[in-house]
Amino acid sequence: MIGFGRKAAAFAAALTFSTLSVALPAAAQELKIGIKTEPSALDPQFHTLNPNIQVGAYFFDALISQDADLKTQPALALSWKAIGDTTWEFKLRPNVKFHDGSDFTAEDVVYTYERIPKVPNSPGPYTIYTRQMKSFEIVDPLTLRIHTTGPSPLLPLDVAALPILSKKAMAGSAPEGKTTAEMNSGNGLVGTGPFKFVEWQRGSKIVGERNDNYWGAKPYWKTVTLRPLSNNTTRVAALLSGDVDMIEDPPTTDLAKLKNDPKITLSRAVSNRVIYIALDQHGEPPIGIPDTGGKNPLMDKRVREALSIAIDRKGIADKIMEGVAVPAGDLLPYPMGGTRKDTPVDAFDQAKAKKLLADAGYPNGFSITLGAPNGRYINDLKVAQAVAAMWTRIGVKTDVDANAPPVFFKNRDSFKYGAYLAGWGASTGELSNALKSLAATPDRAKGMGTTNSGRHSNKEMDAKLEEAVVTIDDAKREALLADASKILMSNHGLIPIHFEISVWALRKGLTYAGRADQSTFAVDVKPAK
Amino acid sequence: MLVYIIRRLMQAALVMVVMSALVFAGIFMIGDPVAMMISPDASEVERDAVRASLGLDKPLWLQYLAFVNAAIHGDFGKSFLAGQPAMQLIFERMPATLELVLFSTVIALGIGLPMGVYAGLRPKSVGAKTIMTGSILGFSLPNFWVGLMLIMVFAVLLPDLVPGFPRLPASGRGATVNVLGVNLSLFTGDGLLHMLLPAITLALYKGALIVRLARATAREVLPMDYVKFARAKGLSENRVVGVHVLKNIMIPIATVTGLEFGQSVAFAVITETVFAWPGMGKLLIDSILLLDRPVVVAYLMIIVVFFVVLNLLVDLLYSVLDPRVRLESRAT
Q1: Nearest by CB: B39 against A15, A41, A128
Q2: How far is it, in rounded angstroms, from Cα A144 to Cα A136?
Q3: In chain A, which residues have their Cβ closer than 8 Å to the Cβ of B185?
Q4: Which among A73, A471, B172, B242 is placed 20 to 30 Å from B84, CA to CA?
């Protein structure tokens, strides 16, 4: 009974508090954002997952940042240059303070990069960005040299993916200093970023507060709250009801309604994510094509071209994607690194497609199964069904085999599909990333063709690409990449369909300049003038 | 009594073993957790390193034995995704679900029981007929639809159209206070306000169930001899209904409420998703989609224990409500 008495007292106390908390007015200059996916951790070295990277940028800065078009910009490094083939030198920004008031120096950078391989149980390690770093040399507190294992022209882009931690704040007993669990509770979560960490309630909200000593343009908002609202309808409802001020990625079905709503504005940006179809080109017998007597029609360039021009990309972008896609003729939109301004998009031409099929020896077409994920990309299943209908119209009888993403990826990686629809967002904003992963001849040791499950292979393209990835000079490298992509596209090794357009919905009176990497950064949300 | 409880616990242990084996096999068949979580830029060497660090490089049966061994020692593994103990992640989320379900159960009982009893006492009245027709809606309307409609009406349309109409929060959990080490929003005005729409959504089905059950049982009990006798004795109608009838109605109601409570705690996921309620149901769905096996296994373990305990409580409650029920005799 004594226990009960205490409980009752606690309840009474709680009730008193509650009346107080209700009476408090809403804080001014507060921005609430409904985000689609919650990060898996706040330790910015735990998991290479977009939501983690996005939230990391609120509290931390990297040496280099990427602007809305993913071009590199100075951040904690003022300038950087290659010295010879295997060394990069970074001049660091002076007078930058961490949230705890301590100075930012090259020591912090070296500590940060050396912690990465020590983070245990990482489901998506950041070592993919440090694998080329051999050693670090601190020339003076504001000059750092990174020696690489070979020519690494893309090191600045790798560096841009690595937020800088404070060596002092991260001191701890574990081998990696502060552990991921400690950082998740805010312990050691001390960066130089535009916001200071306040709290994280898993599943509910992440709160940050303006860093008034920020070295860059100070954010307008005193407080920022990120609320994970994974359900599309809930996210829209939360915006309409004023629970949040802006949301990421409103569903395409609601776009027309939101556009006409006088209380809402939309912001759009072409993203770095291409939706494409890969065709099985590993040889014979074909996969999922039962009626060609063991021949693989997809080995024939004419068949691949026919399949590409049979797709009405504009129709898909307008009708199925409700305008949130632009037809694609490459793996990244112009003007990202290595893209061509004049890249043609394969024109829709059913008659020519039929003729190409006949020329290749398939006047009556054939049957094929198109694999697709259901729920991974915007309207992925509907797009796959539209492509299937368009292919069927030129005589290629297509069945769609759509699955939940985990099942789809498993099937794709074990080569179960003759053709599959997937997406790729080149985080570096340069074609090298997409070409290496999706189109290069698979070579596990070299890290080439890691996601090339169609097993397209073209020696000429490989040669251009391999030369490009060791070329330090930006202009030369981008020209080589453009050549490589030209070879790939003229062979129809992959069939790009469209680039997704990212959409943000905001309450009237706010503006957001969208970003190509689909990130939502509170720093860039401003009241309209 | 003791034998009865021990037997129940042994059954639970058996269910847990079977359940965990099924989850292991199921997730193994669906796909590769590493492929879901790692950056697609990673090379094969890096993928293998992650597999090894999560213990996924070993054969499935070895992984399972390692899990059983650790589980016996109270360690249910770390979430692949978050790197934190799975049990900790679930317990962090549990209060939110429990308080939501508790609130909705109170609403369902508070409204459903009087309505049901009334409909049972006056079956021919217009009120009773309205209640019974309404309860059909409560049954048949899908949960997510009700949730979305409540949001549209009370958080968007009405406050927009009717000046001065209070706008109810459409998503998330309100302010919390720490009660005995647990963060609860049940005791703040803001918290209750946030809970209102999701709790009504959950309560609708439950309430409808209780209405129908209460009415049927009341109709069954009213012609009984002891009710007639109580009336003949000249007891007031309030006492007849409030004590003699109600006590007998409560037996099936207790069972159904108990089971429904368990059902909602375990699988309130639809309501939690629609209202972005940070409970455990949402954690389960997210974990299944990302093949985060330790969390899925730990979750189902908890649910098994939860249901066993709940059933036990319901049985104990029986013996309190109905002296004719003896647990010992049921155990044999």
Answers
A1: A128
A2: 7
A3: none
A4: B172
CA-based nearest residue to A117, from B49, B236, B144: B49
Q: Which residue of A has its CA nearest to B159?
A: A241
CB contact under 8 A, A410 and B278: no
CB contact under 8 Å between A243 and B274, yes or no, is no
d(CA A192, CA B200): 45
Size of interface A-B (CB pairs under 8 A): 197
Asked whether A481 and A235 are in contact (CB, 8 A), the reply is: no
Interface test with B, best of A4, A32, A40, A185 (most B CBs within 10 A): A40
Alpha carbon separation from A300 to A48, A357, A420 (Å, rounded): 38, 10, 17
Nearest to B67 by CA among B297, B289, B320, B238: B297
Contact B170 A234 (CB under 8 A): yes
Decide if B159 and A11 are in contact by the 8 Å CB cutoff.
no
**pLDDT of chain A, 529 residues: tens digit per residue:** 344 444 444 444 444 444 333 333 344 689 999 999 899 999 999 999 889 999 999 999 999 999 988 889 999 999 999 998 899 999 999 999 999 999 999 999 999 999 999 998 888 899 989 989 999 999 999 999 999 999 999 999 999 999 999 999 999 999 999 999 999 999 999 999 999 999 999 889 999 999 999 999 999 999 999 999 988 889 999 999 999 999 999 998 899 999 999 999 999 999 999 999 999 999 888 998 998 888 999 999 999 999 999 999 999 999 999 999 999 999 999 889 899 988 899 999 999 999 999 999 999 999 999 999 998 899 999 999 999 999 999 999 999 999 988 889 889 988 999 999 999 988 888 999 999 999 999 987 777 888 899 999 999 999 999 999 999 998 999 999 999 999 999 999 999 999 999 999 999 999 998 999 889 999 999 998 7
Instruction: Give the length of chain A.
Output: 529
How many other CB atoms sit within 10 Å of the CB of residue B223? 8
Q: Which of A328, A391, A431, A423 is nearest to A70 (CA)?
A: A431
Q: How far is B173 from chain A (nearest CA, A)?
A: 7
How far, CA to CA in Å, does A5 sit from each of A8, A165, B102?
Answer: 5, 48, 22
CB A416 within 8 A of CB A238: no
Look at B172 and A11 and tell me if their CB atoms are within 8 Å.
no
- Map residue A183 onto helix, strand or coil: helix
CA distance A276 to chain B (A): 15
ipTM, 2 dp: 0.83
Residue B183's Cα: distance from chain center in Å? 19
Name the residue with tokens 């698979």: A442
- Which of B31, B168, B286 is opposite residue A407, by nearest beta carbon? B31
| Residue B53, strand partner residues | none
Q: State how far residue B178 is from chain A, nearest Cα, in angstroms.
A: 8
**Does the distance separating the beta carbons of B179 and A450 come in below 8 Å?**
no
